[in-house]
TrEMBL record, chain A:
<dbReference type="Pfam" id="PF12399">
    <property type="entry name" value="BCA_ABC_TP_C"/>
</dbReference>
<keyword id="KW-0547">Nucleotide-binding</keyword>
<keyword id="KW-0067">ATP-binding</keyword>
<keyword id="KW-0813">Transport</keyword>
<dbReference type="GO" id="GO:0005886">
    <property type="term" value="C:plasma membrane"/>
</dbReference>
<dbReference type="GO" id="GO:0016887">
    <property type="term" value="F:ATP hydrolysis activity"/>
</dbReference>
<dbReference type="InterPro" id="IPR027417">
    <property type="entry name" value="P-loop_NTPase"/>
</dbReference>
<dbReference type="InterPro" id="IPR051120">
    <property type="entry name" value="ABC_AA/LPS_Transport"/>
</dbReference>
<feature type="domain" description="ABC transporter">
    <location>
        <begin position="5"/>
        <end position="252"/>
    </location>
</feature>
From TrEMBL, chain B:
<keyword id="KW-0813">Transport</keyword>
<keyword id="KW-0812">Transmembrane</keyword>
<keyword id="KW-0997">Cell inner membrane</keyword>
<keyword id="KW-0029">Amino-acid transport</keyword>
<dbReference type="GO" id="GO:0005304">
    <property type="term" value="F:L-valine transmembrane transporter activity"/>
</dbReference>
<feature type="transmembrane region" description="Helical">
    <location>
        <begin position="43"/>
        <end position="62"/>
    </location>
</feature>
<dbReference type="InterPro" id="IPR001851">
    <property type="entry name" value="ABC_transp_permease"/>
</dbReference>
<feature type="transmembrane region" description="Helical">
    <location>
        <begin position="68"/>
        <end position="87"/>
    </location>
</feature>
<dbReference type="GO" id="GO:0042941">
    <property type="term" value="P:D-alanine transmembrane transport"/>
</dbReference>
């Protein structure tokens, strides 16, 4: 399978804390790739570096055959990487529909002149954006809340809306930061189905998740971070039995004989 | 309603529409950056002075030109020049201070205000200039005892159209959505693919364009322009923005109109209210009494929902 994303020796330091140290990994087109690790292992930092929110101290990303710009979030989105957030970050005062339409911003071109004179291209584009946004809301199953201000949605629906907004950017790679956090078993089941559907539609998924059962059931391959280093990368069945991984999760002392 | 009341109402609407247009520039920038751009009033002055310069030039080269064409051309020069000033301020000064403590951009804005005034003084001198009143100022008398000049009618109509246009722009278009997304959270907006630098620059440009139109209307109404003319309407419009709820577009419009009406009625009745102690030249005190009262009793303004954690 073709490589979609290659991280090469990513490093990020915050003062005295080495949040990421020489992390390299490869994500193949069409797979669901899990990134797991104990709290503070550097998973979210990796997301932030990947999406341009932070500039890495070392290393770089190759994506879809070219270098990714670092430190320029909107240009990373333009290249085809979209994300959701561990702590939900919707545009709270915008409706669900508007949130998704805002996500489509990068794929539309209407300039100020087009908007001022409302030429045919602009109207056409706006109509398509609206249609596409409804489609995505339907896709994640919250179309009935299209005109609801997003802060009034239930927690699970807000998570779904974040996914719809990310999909509106038309990504090749969708990065989900703990999408199942705070969900009950039913909701997690529906989320799993949704992620499988997204993968089925040709979008590669990078998943950070604490719910081990979800990760093991969903991911094609898994990488494990611990103290900013990658300590394992393989198919779930192998990673689950990896000595270093078990040690990282359960603490070093218990298994030191 | 007697003639006098109706007259005050009209005067209030005229000046209130101008305040509202300026207040929109303050409130848009505040909504997105949390910055009070105190140089905004001076952008208005630049607009008026540029329009004046253009008119004088046109009168020299094409004396027979129709007044409407001349005013339109003057606006077509004044608006882009003001937009350029607005953009330049953001690009050169405020952008660098985006992550600085809030006081730094605020003080810089005051510095920008002095800079623009001083530059204007160097270019156009310290004198008051007569501003050509290209739209007739001969009062009409729709009702016995009530006077409205054509320029006042134009001010109300143009302001209303611009406010409707801006509302549609912000609520119905791609760029407006990007502005609202950026106002809520810069970082999230940029992670969702919005070029927030471009959106912020655009916000300054639109605000400056509105200020330029307001400046030309203000100068046309009073027939006078000079380097310091932006200060007072700028301060009043800031008051209007706070009164309406800063950061809130509808609030800026409402605040502008209400402030205009209060001033107009205040000026009309102040002499009677104070038994002749104060006369109508003290009308400016009303704006600042209102500013004080709003800040004490309702800091979020009439329509404000944003908690005033920024000011």
């Amino acid at each position: 399978m073709k490589t979609l994303l290659e991280a090469r020796g990513i490093g990020k330091r915050f003062g005295g804390l080495q949040a990421l140290a020489d992390v390299s990994l490869t994500i193949r087109e069409g797979e669901v790739y899990g990134l797991i690790g104990p709290n503070g292992a550097g998973k979210t930092t990796f997301f932030n570096v990947l999406t341009g929110a932070y500039t890495p101290d070392g290393g770089g990303f190759a994506f879809d055959g070219g270098e990714l710009p670092t430190g320029k979030p909107h240009r990373v989105v333009a290249r085809g990487i979209a994300r959701t957030f561990q702590n939900i970050r919707l545009f709270r005062e915008l409706t669900a529909l508007e949130n998704v339409m805002a996500g489509h911003h990068i794929r539309t071109r209407a300039g100020i002149w087009g908007i001022l004179i409302q030429n045919r291209h602009t109207r056409e584009e706006e109509r398509e954006t609206t249609e596409r946004a409804y489609e995505l809301l339907r896709y994640v199953g919250i179309e009935r809340f299209a005109d609801t201000v997003s802060r009034h949605l239930s927690y699970g629906d807000q998570r779904r809306l974040e996914i719809a907004r990310a999909l509106a950017t038309e990504p090749r790679l969708l990065a989900l930061d703990e999408p199942a956090a705070g969900m009950n078993a039913t909701e997690t089941g529906r989320l799993k189905a949704l992620i499988e559907q997204i993968r089925g539609d040709g979008v590669t998924v990078l998943l950070i998740e604490h719910d081990v059962k979800l990760v093991m059931g969903l991911c094609d391959r898994v990488a494990v971070l611990d103290f900013g280093r990658k300590i394992a990368e393989d198919v779930p069945a192998v990673v689950q039995r990896d000595e270093a991984v078990i040690k990282a999760y359960l603490g070093g002392g218990k298994h030191a004989h | 309603m007697d003639a006098e009341t109706l007259q005050q109402l009209i005067n209030g609407l005229v000046i209130g529409s101008v305040y509202a247009l300026i207040a929109l520039g303050y409130t848009m920038v505040y909504g997105i950056l949390g910055l009070i751009n105190f140089a905004h009033g001076d952008v208005l002055m630049v607009g008026a002075m540029t329009a004046l310069q253009t008119m004088l030039f046109l009168m020299g080269v094409a004396p027979g030109m129709s007044p409407v064409a001349m005013l339109t051309l003057a606006l077509l020069v004044a608006i882009p020049v003001s937009m350029l000033i607005g953009y330049t301020m953001e690009r050169l000064a405020y952008r660098r201070l985006r992550n600085a403590p809030r006081l730094a951009p605020l003080i810089t804005a005051i510095g920008m205000s002095f800079l623009l005034q001083t530059l204007a003084m160097i270019i156009w001198g310290r004198n008051y200039h007569t501003f050509p009143q290209l739209i007739s100022t001969t009062p009409l008398q729709p009702v016995e005892g009530v006077f409205v000049t054509p320029v006042q009618i134009v001010i109300i109509v143009v302001s209303a159209l611009l406010m409707i246009g801006l509302t549609l722009l912000v609520n119905r278009t791609r760029i407006g959505r990007a502005m609202r997304a950026t106002a809520e959270n810069h970082r999230t907006a940029s992670l969702m693919g919005v070029d927030t630098n471009a959106v912020i620059a655009f916000t300054f440009i639109i605000g400056a364009g509105l200020a330029a139109v307001a400046g030309v209307m203000y100068a046309s109404n009073y027939g006078i322009a000079h380097y310091g003319m932006g200060f007072m309407p700028g301060l009043k419009a800031f008051t209007a923005a706070v009164l309406g709820g800063i950061g809130n577009l509808g609030g800026a419009m409402l605040g502008g109109i209400v402030l205009g009406l209060v001033e107009s009625f205040g000026a009309g009745y102040i002499e009677r209210l104070t038994f002749g102690f104060l006369n109508s030249s003290y009308q400016d005190i009303f704006a600042f009494i209102i500013l004080g009262l709003v800040l004490i009793f309702r800091p979020t303004g009439l329509l404000g929902e944003r908690v005033s954690d920024r000011a």
